[in-house]
Amino acid sequence: MGSVAGIVLAGGRSTRFGSDKLREPYRGQPLLHHAIAAVGAVSDDVVVVMGPAADGQDLPPGARLAHDSTEGEGPLAGLHAGLLAAVRSDVAVVIAGDTPNVPADVLRALIGPVEDGAATACALGTPSGPSPVPIALRTWPAADAVHTLLHAGRRRLGDVLDVMRTEVIEEDRWTALDPDRRALFDVDEPSDLER
After folding, report:
1. For the segment 4-53, what is each residue's pLDDT rounded down to a tens digit?
2. How far apart are the C-alpha atoms of 96 and 52, rounded to whole Å?
3. How many CB atoms are closer than 10 A to CB 95?
4. What is the 8-class DSSP label of residue 89?
5. Which fold has domain 4-191?
6. Residues 66 and 82 sit within 8 Å (Cβ to Cβ)
7. DSSP labels for 17-62?
8. Longest dimension (CA), the chain
9. pTM above 0.85, yes or no
10. Which residues make Cβ contacts (< 8 Å) with residue 57, sequence separation at least 6?
11. Alpha carbon of 102 to those of 9, 84, 143, 170: distances in Å?
């Protein structure tokens, strides 16, 4: 069994929220800390990707900071920065900083096919196709694939799933682990914090 890194993408601008949503309190601590704890449940190496100017001073102990190379390049560029920071790990599990309730069992289900070599990427199936987060990736092939995608002008996080050997966990299987579909719940607006 190889090592697993947790990557939390936290470089977005929170435009719909109106302020820095990742610092907003949620159940007694900043929203971002919940995402960090979620990946920390399955990884001893947690990398948080933030904008180029972020100092990471509010990160909890043990979380490492990585920077997007350029502001506003999108989540695929953030993923690239996270993968480069996680190169010592065989597998990376990736979530968004605004997804506070991703169950560890779902992350383990994503990691399994990548860790055992059945796939180089794994995603959750939804009616509209594979969800771009959370996902698990084989670190080095993913870093190479994302680099190629970025140079081709592609910026969507889901694009990496198109170019890797991706296993999709069918919806009925992962919702058996997560009946409330918490793995896909993200905070876009202040009212989402109350849901």
Report:
1. 999 999 976 544 444 466 777 787 889 899 999 999 999 999 999 998 88
2. 17
3. 25
4. S
5. Spore Coat Polysaccharide Biosynthesis Protein SpsA; Chain A (3.90.550)
6. yes
7. TSS-GGGSEETTEEHHHHHHHHHHTT-SEEEEEE-TT---TTSPTT
8. 43
9. yes
10. none
11. 14, 23, 24, 17
